[in-house]
Each structure stands twice: as structure tokens, then as C-alpha cells.
Amino acid sequence: MNNNLFMKLAEKIVADYVIRHLDKSDPAASFSVFIVWMCKTLGNNKALLSTTLHDGMYYELTYNGEKKEFYLDAYKKFENQVIHYEDVSQ
């Protein structure tokens, strides 16, 4: 699978997942999906994606070229800490 096709399918898969998991009692949300990081190794593709929604979610999508299967992992970001090297190197 070439990178352009993978990018297009990755964004669609994540958008479809997000739409299915939005709270049905909320008004329809307008959002975009974007790729944060992507690589291709030995016929497999992997991307980390996020959306413009303020829900703290990010997504990892892997395409197994041998089996022609996609795997989607959805994560919730709980915290972002700065840890200085000096604090842990002692």
C-alpha cells in the first residue's frame, strides 16, 4: 500500500471510529483528523493520529500488509509531565 492511500484510509478509519463513539446526546461535532507521525517498514504501515476535538484522545493505526488488515488502538491522554534529566539521573 502506498503512503498516500494509507494516509487517506487512516484518516477515514479514525473519523468513522470517532463518529461512532461521540455522545449521541451532544450536537453533531465538527472535527478534523490529522496524522502526527507515520512510517512504513517491510510492507507494514503505522500512524499516530489525533483530531481537533478537545477530548484528549489519540489513535494508533497499523496496516499489516501480509494479512491486509488494519488494527486500531484508541488511547486517552491523562497527563503530560516534564521530567528533567537531572532529577532522574542521580
Give short descriptive properties of this protein.
90 residues; alpha+beta; four-stranded antiparallel β-sheet
SSE topology:
Elements: H1 3-21, E1 33-41, E2 44-51, E3 57-64, E4 69-76, H2 85-88
Antiparallel strand pairs: 1-2, 2-3, 3-4
Walk me through this protein's architecture:
It is a single chain. This protein has 90 residues and is an alpha+beta fold. It has one domain: Nuclear Transport Factor 2, Chain: A. It is 26% helix and 37% strand. The protein has two helices and four strands. The protein has helices at residues 3-21, 85-88, and strands at residues 33-41, 44-51, 57-64, 69-76. A four-stranded antiparallel beta sheet has the order 1-2-3-4, with helices on one face. β1 and β2 form a beta hairpin. The chain is flat, with a radius of gyration of 16 Å. It starts with a helix and ends with a helix. The mean pLDDT is 93.
> In angstroms, what is the radius of gyration?
16 Å
The helix/strand series, from N terminus to C terminus, equals: HEEEEH
* Overall geometry: flat
Q: What is the first-to-last residue Cα distance?
A: 47 Å
Brief write-up:
This protein is an alpha+beta fold.
